[in-house]
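Ticket #4471: structure export looks truncated?
Reporter: QA, pipeline team
Priority: medium

Steps to reproduce: submit the single chain below to the structure queue and open the exported record.
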Amino acid sequence: MLALVAVVHLPLLAFRLVYDDWWTIAANGFLRAPQLALLLSPEAVAQHVPDAFRPTLVVFDVITYQLCGLSAPLHHALSIALHVAVCWLAQRWLALLGAPLQLRAATLALYGLLAVHAEAVAVVSFREDLLAALVGLFGLVLASMFIRSGKWGPLALAALCSALACGAKLSAAALPGLWLLGEVLQPWDRRPAPRRRLIAGALALALGVALALAHTWLLHGGLSPYADSPRLEAHRAGYAAVLAASTQIHLGYLQQIVAPFGLSPEYVDFGARWTDPATLLASAALLALLVFGAANARRRPVVAFAILGAFALALPTSNLVAIPNMRADRFLYLPSLPACVGLCAAALALGRRLAAWRPALELAPLVVLVVVQGAVRLGAAHSYRNGVQLWTDALAQAPGSARAHALYAEGLLANADPSDRGEIAHELLLARVEAHCLRARDLDPDDALGHVCLARLALIREAWAAAHDQWLRALAKSSERNARILAALALHSLDLPGLSASQRPQLAAEYVARGLREYPFVPEVWATAGRIAHLTGAATEADAHYQRAYALAPERLQTALWGLELALDLGDAAAARKIWVRDRKVLDRAPTARRMELLLRTHEAARLFPSSAQASMLDHGARDDP
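Actual output as written to the record:
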C-alpha cells in the first residue's frame, strides 16, 4: 500500500515551484545564512524571517535547502516521502490501538490517496502540514508505547515530538485530543489503559503544545501570529460573521472528504449571519453529527473515534483563532485521518454484507472508494503543475478572488515581450492584464495585490509616476511581505519625474535603507541596494551589496547580471570572467540577446584593458574553477 501511494504521486516530480514556494524557499535568504538563535527572539519577527513562529519548519527548510537547493523534483520527492511516512505512522499508531490489519491497510490506502490532500502534497511550501503530521503522529506512537510498556523514555520523546510538531504548524496542537480519544474509547482493544499512565501521557503531549504556544506568544504577543493582519475577514465582517460562515465551510469539508468534488486552489473569504438558512442548516448538521458521535462512544467506539476525532483536529483551523485564509484544502490534512478510519470501517462492513451474497464483492466498496479518491486526486493535483496553471484554475474556480485576478495578471505580464508577440498582440495583452488588475482592486480595495499588479503594468508602460503611486498605495495597504514593494520603490525612484537629480537618489536611499532594516534576509533588497549604489557611482558599496545578495540567493539571475555589469562598467575583465565561470548555469537562464551582449562586452573589456584581465579590482569571492 505504501508503494501504491508513492507510485501514484510520481507525476508530482515534474511539477515546478508555485505559490508560497518562492517566498519560503527561493527568495528566503535565511535558509542560506541561518541564524537559528534568532528564532528564539521577537527580533525574528521584526526582521521578517519567513515562518519564524514555526522553528521546526525553518530548521527543516535550512537542512533541505542544503540537500536539494532549488531543484523542484527533489523537493517534490521529499514531499512524497514525508506523505508516505505519515501514512505509515498513522497505521502504526492504529496498530498500537489494536486495529486489525485489514482496516489499517485500508486506512493507509484511502488516506494516502485522499483527493483533498492534493494541495498539501503537491505544493512544496505546504509541507508544513506533512511535517507537523509526521512528527506529531510519531509523538502519538511514543505516548501509546508508554501506555503499554510503562517506560518513561518514550513519554519524554513524545512530549518533545508534540512541541516540534506544533513548531512545524500549530494545527498539530489538537493531536493530543485525538490521542486521548483513541486511548479512552479503545475502539478495538477493550482493555482500559491505566489511569495514571493515561494522565501522564496526556500531560506530556499537552506540555509540548504549551511550549509551542509559549514560543508563538513570545514572538507575536498572542496565540495567533496573524491577529493584526489586515487580510483577516474578521476585521471586515466581524468575528461572529466569520464563525457563522465557518459552519458552512466545515460542512463543505465533510462533503469534500466523502465525495471529492469542489476542490479548489483558491477560495473567497466571506462572512455570514447566524440567521441565514445555510448557516442554520450547516450548524444543525454538524451538531447532529457531533451528538451522534458522542452518543455512540460505548456502543460503536469506531464511529465515535472517527467523528469526534475529526471534530477535534478541525478546531485549530475552524477560525476560532485568527488565520489568513478561512478555507483551504490543506487544512484537512490532519482532520481527515480519523474520518478515513470511519469511512474504511464502513466500506469494509458493507463489503462483508455483500460477501454474504457474493464473496467476490467483499472488497468492492473499499476498492471503489480508494480508486475514485485516487483518480480525483491526480486531477486535482494538476492545478499545481506551475504558476500559470495554478492561477488559471484558481481564477476559473474562484472568479470572485482578488488574489486570483492579480496573480493571474502577473503571470500574463511574464509573457509581455513585444519582440516575441508583435506590437499589437503586446498591447492587447497589456489591456487584458489591466482588466484583471482593476478587477482585483475593485474586488478587494484593501488588498495590496491589485495595486502591485497595476504598478508592474505601469513599469512596462514606462509610466514611472503612475507606478510609483501604485507602489505607495500597495505599501500603505500591506503589513507583511513588503520587501519587493520597497525594492521597487527604491529602484524606480531614480526614474521618477518631478524630482531633481539630487532628490532621486536620496529618496531611493531612504526606501532601500528601510528595506535593509526590515528585510535583511531578502536577497532582492540587497541586490536593489547594490544596483542603486552602482547607478549612483558608489562601486565599492555596490559590490558589497551584490556579494550579500549573492550569499543569500546564489541562484538569482538578476544579481549575477547586475554584478557582471558592474565589473564591465569598471573595465574589470578579471572580475567579469570569474563571474562568468562562477555563475555559468545561472547566466544560461538569461535571454539570449542579453547574454551575448554581456559576453561580447567581457571579451571587449579583456582587449581594451589587458592589465585588468590578470588582477581584479573587485573582491567578490568568485573563483576560476566552476
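Status: closed, not a bug. The export was complete when the record was re-opened. Leaving a note from the reviewer for reference: Residues 620-626 have pLDDT under 50 and may be disordered.
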